[in-house]
Structures are given as structure tokens and as C-alpha cells.
Amino acid sequence: MMIEQNELLQQLSTQLGPEQILSTPEACANFRIGEQVPQLVVSPASQEELSYVMALAYAAQAKVVAWGAGTKQSWGNPPQQVDLVVRTDGLKRVLVYEPDDLTISVEAGMTLGELDDLLAKHGQMLPLDGPLPRRATIGGLLATFMDGPRRLGYGTARDLLIGISVVEATGRISKAGGMVVKNVSGFDMMKLYLGSLGTLAVIASANFKLIPRPRAAATVWCGFERSEQANAFVDAIHASQLLPVAVEYLSGAEQARGLKAVAVCAEGLPAAVERHVRDLPNLARASGVHSLEVLRDAEHTAFWAGVNDLPQTAQVADDEVVLRLICLPSEMGAALIACEELRDQLAALTIDARALNGVAYLRLRGEGEQLKRAYAQLTAALGQRAPSARLNALAGQARGQLPVWGRAPEGIDVMQRIKDEFDPQAILNPGRLADTLMR
Amino acid sequence: MNRAQVIEELRRIVGERGVVDQPDALMTYDADGCVMDIHAPHVVVLPTTTAQVAGVVKVAIRAGMPIVPRGAGTGLSGGATPMQGGIVISTSRMDKILEVDTRNNRVRVQPGVINFELSQYLKPYGYQFAPDPSSQRACTVGGNIANNSGGPHCLKYGVTASHVLGVQVVLPNGEVIWTGDGVSHMSGYDLTGVLTGSEGTIGLVTEAWLRLTRLPEQTRVVLALFPDIAGASATVSSVIASGLLPAALEMMDKLAIKAVNDMYKLGLPESAGAALLIEVDGVEDGLDEVLAEITEVCRSYGAIEVRPARTPAEQNQVWAARKNAFGAMGRLAPTYYLVDTVVPRTRLPHTLEEVGRISREYKLPIANVFHAGDGNLHPLILFNRRDASQNQRALEAGTAVMQVSIDQGGVISGEHGIGVEKQDFMTLLFSTEDLAAMAGLHQSFDPYDLFNPGKVFPKGRGCGELAALRAKGVEWSELKERGKLWL
User: Fold this and answer.
1) Of A309, A339, A369, which residue is a domain's last?
2) pTM (two decimals)
3) What is the third-level CATH fold of B218-407?
4) What is the ipTM of this complex?
């Protein structure tokens, strides 16, 4: 910081109440990221206050980290320096909601659960699943571009985010998009901020398109003895004209019941859901299914709530790392087999894969050396059998030795120019994207 | 470099037949589907490879000449019009479908592939490329990417941005990169996302991985006729809210019905004030129940006739009327000005009333053919281009439609883009800060304004100037002035 903590504190105090500012080391310690403990933690209560806080931080050249619930703060590299944590817990308002328009605008600090409660009253939903919905915020979901099981049927935030308002590094408020479901008025800035991990601006509010809640839903749970059988089932679903909204490969988790499970979720019209309940077991039997169950109502809901939380990064054991494996969907089967081969040498291994989307979340537990060896074996096996695969280390103490991002993408020069343009003093989450970007 | 040197260099890169420099030939590149502003390019090149495009861009950098990308030229906002001359890069010879990969739901194409031909090609595989703009028989996928095109079926399947997995792009510095290949959650920023819909101002797409969408098992279409727009609009809201998730929900008003009736002999009753076309698709189970339910909704809102179309032949006939409605306008007037705006869905009835008022006020007939399910209006202002007064009134009526749409909480373009046509209306929708952020993104790619200059951003507000505003921190005084909060 160019100016003293006291000076910044004093300036903040002229506009924010004492209950909005934490400045003692004990209070700030709860907002530790890696080795970094902020000096100040503030909770602006409006977009204007957020703008004010950011402008002050910019003038002070304080390094800023935006913080929703903190459930995904471990993602990416820990920032090199954190002076100020800006919380969004004071930004929870619904800004615009006209149910018949099937759109909504909400502030970034609203939790996924709060939003869903509101929408449920109107028979609507935002079909973006994220772990720990009672804690995780909209802003955090967007900044990390976290996905959920139902992305297969409804897409990701990329497809559902129709407008955004951000506060930039300087404190400027800018917006893009709108409250309509189709819009090419100006550049698609939503895509820029999505997944940028708070390195370009702080997300203040977001607009989404909504859909009516489905009239019917059911789960067809299929347990297999071997991964190869589960993969064959997934392939058969892909080849069919069925339209499940989620196809999740599960292993090592409670929801897998000691088998390699494939859980398929169907939602929509009752007759269409029943068609899935009727046809999927036939496909599963042809792939050698061991046991099969249809889940409905409360059982169905509870099952998916559990699956949804599997990739959470808020509570990670001391001997655990959480990895995300991304690859072309065609290589997911081979990648999953490579993952399963690690099981015997680890204390525990949980796999939750969005099998048809090429995304898997892995939880590995073991001693430091065990983890390192398993990681090395996995990368070697993936190199051979799933060359498109990359591993992102999302959370866990042991990941200090693991590459956070895996192989770098193309276009780094232009990404660096974007970062420099939007954050010329490198005060927003500096170093979070290191290995991909320089600052 | 003088013009002759530039042309000689370009010939060396793309070959003798790849360069167009005869003045009369250049005239055919002086506009796209938006004919309000025209300007001929200095030269047109027709490359066949990415390397050739990159070579041409490097010549342009040395010569300081703008690059203007062009697909089929069907755009309606002047995006492909070389407003400052320069080099037009036409993708018409980059028209190969390179690789179909159904296991990964993707297809790799060159940008000059025609949208409709791609979907025809994919049919035997059981897949489609979902975006289906009305110009799909002519427009290219490169143009679809540049404009983030829509179409009737984006109600269910989403706009082009949801169907582009990654692009190979030549950047304004001549660099060639791939922004993705279909692997989700790549690290770094979503360059694919920001390039899509950037109207050729920050990169030229030379190849793309597009998402394949499974063809539905079955489709059902209903054509419902209403005495007036109000009943049809209420039906739209009711169907959307019901959770039936139609694949398309299209509306035509009385004037449009008359035009397509004359042209396609549909035998629609002339008493109909509005026609609604509703399509549902998916697994076969339940579709007939949906059809019955929709029919019931239509009747409950006063439909005078409901025609279900079950067979592909019946469905094609209904769809042909909708997709060719713009062409049928020739029966009503020599020219039309198609305005593309979007409003929140509940504001449709009021906005349409306003469009009627605008028609009366400016004394020009306006037909409506539009994507009702999305709230995406397409008023067709009918006029005679040879009549200066009508010309002027058509432009003013178009502006009035945009203003009404913004007043109703909408935006100035749903799928046609800003280009030249709407650049000066951007300030109605966006603050200086909003535009400055967009300019910042633009500057990161194209600091010298080489690619498609003079588009999207308001005239007289250069990207450099807007971006410079951002670099300047917010002054204390300015903050205090802006909000009463701190006083």
C-alpha cells in the first residue's frame, strides 16, 4: 500500500459505518488467502459504496480481493499481496424481477440458495448449480465460472448471464448487456468477466434469463462394477436421442455406493421424463449394469444436492487436494480409467465427472509424497490416453507443489493486454492467474 | 506503400484471381444488406487459407490500410461496409467443412461456409448447427460469429455465442491464435466469448469449432390465427410461462400475413390480425399432449383458427412463409427498413401499440414479423427509396422504434448488430463508462483501429479516447458530484 492502513481506514470510515469495516488482525485473519492476511475487510452496502471503496483503494494502490462467501477463494494462485478484502455480503438486493419476463437482476452477494427460494415462489429457476448453495454467492459463481451437473441440459453461466454491472479497479461503474434474453448491442462484456477470478473488476450485479421449473423430474441411478461398463453406458446415452439434463459419473463418493455409478437426471414434461425412466435402464443393462434404481421426489432432490456439493472447496482436509480435470468429452472415459488406477495408492479418491461435458472434479487424499506420486502418474497416463486433458489444482494445502493451471492456453499476449488495460496498477487479485498471466 | 505496391503484394499472397481491384467490381462490395451508407473498398482479397489472411493483415499494417472482413454481405447494420475504404477480406473462398466430430459434438469449419449448407451437411449425422437466421440460405457462419446471430430457434437453443467452442483468429497485429477447441474451463480469459459478436472489429475468424446440436427426435408446429395482436401476445406470455419450452415462437401481423398469403398461397383468412407460429421439439413422448395444450391456450385467448402441422411437409410450408416473409414484402412496397430491437417479453403488447402509433405518425406502413418468444421485434418500415421524404421519414420512424424499445427497458439490437446503422444510438443505451469499458477491451486487441474501423462505437468517440477515460482514476470531486450518498 502506498498509504498507511490508518489513512485508508480513516477515509473509509467517513462514509462506511464501523460495522462495515473490520480492521483488527483477529477479525481479518478469517479472510486469509494462502499466506496473505488482509489489513482491512470492508462490506459496502450498495454499488455506489463499492465504487467509493474501490476508488479509495485505487488511490492508495491497495491490493484488492473481492470476497463473496469465500468458498472458492483457494482457486488459482494465491494473490501475491492482499491489503483489502471487499465483501459482497451487503449486496443482496433483487434489483429487477418481473416474473412474467423470465429475467432477474440481482446483486452479487445474494446466495444461490436465496435466489432459488425467491424463484421457487414463482415456479421458476436459474438452472445454474453450484456447490454449497446456502453459502456460495452469485458473484463468486460468476467470477469462478463454476459449473454444475445440469449444465448438460441447460448450459453454463455463459448461456444464462444476460447482463452485468461491475466496479472497475478505478472505482468506475460500468455495465453491459441488459434485461432481455437476446442482445447484440455492444460487446459481450459478460464473457470477459465470467471466470476472470476477480482480476479485471468486481462484479456488483448480474442479470439472468430464467426458465420455468420443470413439471416433472426423476433420476435413473445405475451402478457398475467396472469403469469401462459405466463409460459404455455414457456413450450409449450420447448416441441416443434422449435429452437428460445431467449425466454424472460418480465413484468413491457416498452417492456411488461402492460402485462406479452413472446418475442420469431427466427433467421436463412428465411423459418425456417417463420415457427416460423407461429407456435408460435398457441402455444400462446392455452395458452390464450391476444395480439400478429410480429416484423421485425428495430422494431425487436430496441425491442431487449431495452430488452438487462434491466439488466444494470450502472444507478441504489437511491431506486432501481438489483437482479439476478438463478434456474433450470423447477422452473422458479414458481419463476416468486413468484416475481410477490411482485408487489403490491413495488414502481416498472421489470422482465426480460431468461425463458428457468433459469436466471432472477429483478429491485425492494421501500423504504428501503419495499425492505427488499419484499426480505424476496421472499426468503421465493422461498424456498417453487423453492428450486433450489438463489438470487444474483448485484447493488443498498439498497443492503448493502442483501446477495450478496446467498447460497455458493460446492468446496469452492479448489476455495480458486486457489485464493491463483493465487493471493498469495490478491491484486486483495480483498473481491469481500467474502461469497464465504475468500479473 | 502506394496502391499499386499494395495490390502487387496482395497478388503475391493470394494469387492473381484472389484480388479484385477493378473499380466496377469494387462497387459490388460497397455495402451489405444495409444500404443507407455506402463506400467502396480500395481493394478486395479472396484468400483461401489462414496464412493468406495473416499475410494480408501484415500488408495492411505496413500500408496503414483498414481491414474489413466480409462474409456473404447479408448483414443489416453495415458491419461489412468499408466506411473508410481499405482492404475487404472476403471469406467466400474459405468455404470448407473440415472435420465432423460427433463424439465431441463439434464441427470444424472455415468461416465462408453457408449456414444452411452446414446444417444440411450435418443432417445425415443426426445433428444440426442450431443458429438459424432468416438469411441462413445465404449467410456464412463467419458472419454469424461476428454478429452473434440469432434466428427463430435461439428461443430454445440460444444465440450463436452458445454454439461457438473456439475460433482460430487473425488478430490486428497479424498474430494467429486458437481460442479453444471444445475443452471447457480453459484457464485465462474467454477470448472466444468476447470475439463472438464483436462485428469484425477485434479479430478475423479463419476457422471455428462449432457446437453440434442433436436433431430432435420429433417436432410439432402449430399455426394459430388471431383476430388481433393482443390475443396473440397474451398467448405468447402464457405459453412461455407454462414451462413448455417451445423451440420457436414467431409472430406475423396483418400486413405481413397479407404479403405471405399473396406470395405463398397459404389461404390464410384475411380477417386474421395476427398469426402465431409455435414449434415444440424433443423426444416424441408427450409432444402430442403439448400440442393439445398449446392449442387450448391459443383458443382460450381467442384464436379463430389453429392449424397443427405434424408432417415435415406441412411444417416446411408454414416455416417457409415465416422465413421468406421479408422477401414477400416486395409485394407491398419497393423497399423496407427492418428495425431490430428487443424488449422484455411483457412489454411486447405495449411496444407493438407504439409501433402502430409510429406508423401513423410518420405515415408509413409498418409490417411486423418477429421472434415473439424472445421479445425480439422486427418492424418492417415500408417505403419508396426514390422518395426523399419517405426516406427521411423511414429513418426517423426507425429511430422512434429504438427509443420506444429503450423506454420499455429494451435494447437497440437483438441479432443484427450495431455496425454503422446504430452506432450513434449506443449512447441512448450506454453511459460513457459502459462504452469506455468496451473500448478498453477493443484497445487490447486493436490499438491502432485497423480492423473494421468506425463501427459499433458512436461517431466522434474514438476507442482510444474512450479507453483513455478509463485509465484516469475517478476523482474525489467527481465521486462526490455523482452520488448524493457522500454529501
Assistant:
1) A309
2) 0.96
3) Vanillyl-alcohol Oxidase; Chain A, domain 3 (3.40.462)
4) 0.97
